[in-house]
Structures are given as C-alpha cells and as structure tokens.
Amino acid sequence: MTKISASEVNKLRKMSGAGIMDCKNALVESNGDFDLAIEILRKKGQKVAAKRAERESSEGAVIAKVDSDCQNGVIISLNCETDFVAKNDGFISLANELADLALNSNSIEEFLNSTIDSMTVNEKLVQQTGVIGEKLVVGNFEKLSAAYVGKYIHAGNKIATLSGFSSSSNGIEEIAKNVAMQAAAMNPIALDENGVDQSTIDKEIEIAKDQLRQEGKPEGMLDNIAKGKLKRFFKDNTLVNQDFIKDGKQSVAAYVKSNDSNLNITGFKRVALV
Fold it and tell me: Distance from CA of residue 217 to its chain's centroid?
C-alpha cells in the first residue's frame, strides 16, 4: 500500500475542499494519483469541483501583452523560487521586458532562442539566476491571435488571461477586458462544449451515473439524467456558457451579443501560478 504523507493529504484537501479522512482514503485508494483521487471523491458524492486545466508553477509573475494592433497577444510566466523575489521590482520589470519580446515569437522554443541584450533569452535567464541567486525559468508561453485581442492581469501578477473576438466593434476594449476577467475568475476548461475533449465528457457521464446509482435511481433513467448533468457541466465550465460574473442573469455569450449581435468570442488563454 502506498504511504501517503500529511502534506499530500493537505494538498488534496486544498484542491478538493473535502475532509481530511476522505482525502487520505482517496489517496490510498488511488495509490497517490491526485487526478484519480479527485475522481474517487466525486464518485463518492463529495462536492469537489471538476479538475480544470490549471498549469502548475511555483513562484513568479504572469504577464499578458497585446500588440499595437490588438490582434496578437501573449502570456508568459517567469518563474522563480520565492515569493520575495517574485515581488521585487527588478524581477517584475524583467518579466514585462520578456513578455514584450515574446510577442514576436510563435512558440516557447522560438522565444527562448530570440535575442535580448546581445544574448538569447535562455542565456539571459542563466545570467539573471546568477545576479538574483534563484533559478529563473519561463514556465508558460501562450499565444492568441484574433481580429481583436484583449488582456487582463490579476492583482499580484498571479493570473493573466487573453480573450479573442471575431471583430473590433464599438466598446470592444471594455468587452474584451470583462471577458478576460471572466476567464481569470471562473477558470473555464474550454471556449464551448465543442472544445471539451471526449475523455472529459466520458468521465463526467461516468461520475454522474455513479452518483445517480447511489441515489437509487433506476438504471434505465441514468442516461437521460446524466445528459442533463453533462449540460450543467458545460454551463459551469465553458466560457461562453458560464453565467457572466458581472450579471448572473445572462451568459457570457449573451453579454457579448447584447453589445454587438454580430460579435463572437473566438478563443481565450489563461495562465495561473498555483
């Protein structure tokens, strides 16, 4: 049997919100696999939020930048070892400088090999590691292109998002910021239901059916009820279908359409330090 440490139990408790013993038992049953442990908790009726595609990082700063035409945006995370360094003005300045440079690259490999101060970004990170005394790495690189791209950086540089739109219309700057804030706050897993991978859909249906069986629902009713639960999952976890955080009476898509009936959200990117 896999030995589970107190720190692992605490980590799962923070991730899931479930009780200590429930978390410990789930980790034992899953042999220490956190994804499987969360699935076990959910199947047993625990109120655990669906795992979302959060990228794990340590300390650092997440910066979003958009070009002058507002048609291309990028998010990078510059990671370090301690919160003390992450809050340093020089470190934040370097993160912003690197994010500006990243706008000219289409991949993290291209970015790391681009030139800054007569050296590559990789070489710059090694140099600054020597200056600061902590290992610096670019932990994330996300690019988004659209007819209009907006950005949002949450206070403290821990979360940054980009939002893409089908056109540039009146009031688009505010609309784009509001949608980017929505993505930062509600952490959707996809733009809409078409962007949710089949394995996630299958897992949600399986979890819903297990919960219904425990409630004593007849086997013949499970498929239809599970479809209803899946529809709710899409509403809670896909950007365009989520309730708009500034007006819960309408969806994010409806909010965008209320400003311009021809405007559509075409994509988003989100990076967070956790």
Answer: 35
Query: Do 45 and 66 fall into the same domain?
Result: no
* Number of domains the chain contains: 2
Q: How far is residue 201's CA from residue 233's CA, in Å, rounded to a whole number?
A: 9
pLDDT by residue (tens digit) across 217-255? Answer: 888 888 888 888 899 999 999 999 999 999 989 999 999
**CB contact at 8 A, 73 and 100:** no
- The 10 Å Cβ neighbour count of residue 166 is 15
Number of Cβ atoms within 10 Å of the Cβ of 198: 7
Q: Residue 274 has which token pair?
A: 């956790």
Could you tell me the pTM of the whole model?
0.76
d(CA 111, CA 94) in angstroms, rounded, equals 15
3 and 130, same domain (yes or no): no
Q: Which two tokens stand for residue 180?
A: 């980017």
Write out the DSSP string of 33-44: -HHHHHHHHHHT
pLDDT tens digits, residue range 122-154? 898 888 887 787 888 999 999 999 999 999 999
Domain encompassing residue 1: 1-49
Question: Rounded CA gap, 211 and 230, in Å?
Answer: 13
Alpha-carbon distance of 53 to 234, in angstroms, equals: 15
* Rounded distance between C-alpha atoms, residue 272 and residue 158, angstroms: 6
* Same structural domain, 41 and 148: no
Q: Which residue has the tokens 């994330």?
A: 140
Stated as kind and residue range, the H or E segment containing 115 is strand 115-116
